Structure to design on (729 residues):
């Protein structure tokens, strides 16, 4: 298959570069590509953000609906995160039901938001046991050039920060905004030939066998972690990645949130 | 008592003798499979389970699975199917085997005794036919794990010789774990039972003697043996 | 993660009497299924799991075959009766993610290059659930793969740690998982201390995380010994039986 041969060639290329301390686009190992965050661009959504990290582009939209709470949490609102790897974003994406990659992406972003308790779910309760707000975080990947997780997670929190509660639509009165208590930021790193690289681009993501996403909050605590890939990591490598993760999250938070 | 190992178990530091089902890392030999260590010549692990992967020169019993001119596709009890080209067919020197009449030579379900002529990198397996290749008639096919075949054969063939003698059967054991038995009904029953017993106790010691005792008592007890 | 409305630690002990660093009881049986090429029944506390391996066998669909190595497939599935609220049969998003994470936990040890173009299929069925199911599944799958004769560099062992009532503890049960502050499943290759699965859910400081990881790695060594013993004894037990007869 054509794509596989290209993958192998590019894999070797990435490895060779890393061996001599370099990356394809000239970045340092801990350096992110250019990030841009544009908010509030989808009028029909209650919140939205368009995040670009390098050439990767992800659009996140927040929709709020009224609904019933889960039976075991009658006084809490509901958070539902979904990700679509739509075919236009990559020659590798096919239309159809969510596959393991889009499911993992959504669940990791969800984990970060939930773990940080950025949204006070109790504030979303309108009538205990009967009526609560359901917050849909929908991640729409538009261009996959590596590191979808960080872009999606950044888009999620950025869109949550400026929600317009759709009170009118439901004939309710109440707060116009949703208080957000924390700003979780995801930082994904890969290991290539024993080196840790942050913000892997597409080729680096393919070349690496292990990948770790570290989600941290404004106070440096962790609210999510996910290792993926077919390789293994040593305890020291994980410790290093956690350090880098917290550090980079702080930088990104300061500049973009 | 044999030494059983699991994948990742350390076996030895003699990396120059590392053999089958082992791997070497930083000057040490480790097991890659669940099995019994054999350090007599090279250091290897005799696997107690696993699929048969054909090697050039193996003699196997195959079953015709598909007819796809000019090949018969043959099931050889492996994750890989093998193929037999019409030109390999010994008896077809004069007549020409054609698309339409392949099944009159070898049909679906037929059993053949065949030799692995070649295995290439893409796991394309080519078979060749031996002189008396056709297996059929009054006989029985039993299948055991290919990993137990050496035990059924025994050291220098001691076990198989004893089986043939005491069961009074023709027994052919192929590398892929398929065994063809021919003889009287009673004798074939005994042979099958014994072979399955050997296969299930392949990892134990003193097996040859135990089997010999079993066979003798079976004969004496005129068929009332315990299997 | 819920606030700790339930008191999970009383007088320095957990509700089920365990210490902070105690594993639940483990039971392992090898080769329990006739049809599968390899299998393992595994109990971790009240979790009951069965893992089966089929393969290597022909890979379908053909176009998804890898010309150079075996493709590993992993399917984690919960039986409808395994949980309090009946679970609808079929894969749900959680099961799909767990299947992926589990597969990636075992990938680093499976020597796939020995069986090009084939598929090695791992099936984990959860019969009874009490938190830590994916770790039980990975442990069982490791043993089942060995039982099937799949060549591997090592076994993989797995356990979860978590934070309850402010304390880092080992191997959460369902009550602790539901009311705790963080849950962290980990998978480790005991021999080399290499981590092959790591997830964290909840909120932890960096120090708590590091402490939890160490705790998990130590427990994985214990679990590894149990996995290994189960495999070795399976053959020596029948050897002893023969000598007795």
């Amino acid at each position: 298959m054509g794509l596989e041969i290209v993958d192998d060639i590019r894999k070797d290329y990435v490895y060779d570069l890393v061996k001599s301390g370099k990356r394809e686009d000239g970045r340092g190992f801990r350096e992110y590509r250019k990030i841009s965050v544009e908010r509030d661009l989808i009028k029909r959504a209650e919140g939205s953000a368009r995040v670009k990290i390098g050439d990767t582009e992800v659009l996140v939209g927040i929709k709020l609906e009224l609904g019933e709470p889960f039976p075991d949490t009658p006084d809490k609102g509901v958070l539902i995160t979904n990700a679509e790897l739509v075919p236009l974003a990559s020659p590798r994406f096919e239309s159809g039901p969510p596959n393991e990659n889009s499911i993992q992406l959504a669940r990791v972003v969800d984990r970060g938001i939930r773990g940080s308790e950025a949204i006070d779910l109790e504030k979303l309760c309108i009538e205990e046991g009967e009526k609560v707000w359901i917050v849909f975080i929908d991640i729409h990947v538009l261009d996959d050039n590596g590191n979808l997780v960080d872009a999606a997670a950044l888009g999620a929190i950025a869109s949550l920060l400026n929600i317009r509660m759709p009170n009118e639509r439901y004939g309710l009165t109440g707060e116009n905004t949703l208080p957000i208590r924390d700003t979780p930021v995801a930082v994904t790193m890969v290991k290539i030939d024993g080196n840790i690289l942050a913000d892997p681009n597409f080729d680096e993501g393919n070349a690496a066998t292990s990948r770790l996403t570290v989600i941290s909050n404004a106070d440096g605590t962790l609210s999510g972690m996910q290792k993926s890939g077919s390789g293994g990591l040593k305890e020291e490598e994980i410790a290093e990645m956690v350090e880098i993760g917290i550090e980079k999250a702080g930088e990104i938070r300061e500049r973009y949130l | 008592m044999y030494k059983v190992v699991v994948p990742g178990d350390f076996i030895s530091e003699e990396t120059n003798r590392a053999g089958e089902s082992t791997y070497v890392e930083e000057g040490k030999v480790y097991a890659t499979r669940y099995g019994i260590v054999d350090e007599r010549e090279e250091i290897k692990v005799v696997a107690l389970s696993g699929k048969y992967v054909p090697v050039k020169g193996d003699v196997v019993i195959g079953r015709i699975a598909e007819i796809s001119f000019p090949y018969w596709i043959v099931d050889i009890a492996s994750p890989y199917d093998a193929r037999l080209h019409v030109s390999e067919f010994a008896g077809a020197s004069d007549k020409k085997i054609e698309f339409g009449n392949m099944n009159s030579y070898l049909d679906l379900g037929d059993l053949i005794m065949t030799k692995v002529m070649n295995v290439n990198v893409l796991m394309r397996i080519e078979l060749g036919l031996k002189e008396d290749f056709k297996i059929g008639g009054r006989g029985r096919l039993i299948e055991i794990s290919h990993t137990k075949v050496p035990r059924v054969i025994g050291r220098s063939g001691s076990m198989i010789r004893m089986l043939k003698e005491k069961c009074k059967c023709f027994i052919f054991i192929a590398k892929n774990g398929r065994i063809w038995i021919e003889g009287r009904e009673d004798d074939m029953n005994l042979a099958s039972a014994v072979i399955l017993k050997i296969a299930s106790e392949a990892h134990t010691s003193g097996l040859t003697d135990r089997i010999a005792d079993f066979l003798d008592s079976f004969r004496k007890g005129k068929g009332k043996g315990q299997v | 993660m819920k606030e700790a409305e339930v008191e999970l630690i009383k007088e320095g002990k957990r509700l089920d009497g365990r210490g902070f660093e105690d594993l639940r009881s483990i039971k392992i049986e090898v080769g329990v299924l006739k049809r599968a090429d390899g299998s393992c029944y595994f109990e971790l506390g009240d979790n009951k799991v069965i893992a089966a391996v089929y393969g290597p066998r022909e890979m379908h669909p053909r176009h998804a075959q890898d010309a150079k190595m075996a493709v590993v497939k992993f399917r984690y599935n919960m039986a409808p009766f395994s949980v309090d609220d009946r679970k609808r049969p079929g894969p749900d998003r959680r099961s799909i993610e767990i299947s992926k994470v589990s597969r990636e936990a075992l990938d680093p040890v499976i020597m796939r290059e020995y069986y090009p173009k084939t598929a090695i299929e791992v099936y984990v069925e959860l019969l009874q659930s009490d938190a830590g199911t994916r770790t039980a599944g990975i442990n069982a799958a490791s043993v089942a793969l060995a039982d099937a004769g799949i060549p591997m560099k090592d076994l993989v062992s797995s356990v979860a740690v978590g934070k309850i009532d402010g304390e880092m503890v080992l191997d959460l049960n369902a009550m602790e998982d539901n009311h705790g502050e963080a849950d962290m499943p980990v998978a480790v290759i005991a021999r080399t201390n290499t981590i092959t699965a790591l997830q964290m859910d909840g909120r932890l400081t960096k120090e708590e995380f590091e402490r939890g990881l160490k705790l998990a790695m130590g427990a994985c060594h214990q679990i590894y010994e149990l996995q290994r013993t189960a495999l070795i004894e399976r053959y020596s037990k029948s050897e002893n039986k023969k000598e007795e007869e």
Q: What stands out?
A: Residues 235-256 of chain A form the longest helix (22 residues). Chains A and B do not touch (no CB pair under 8 Å).
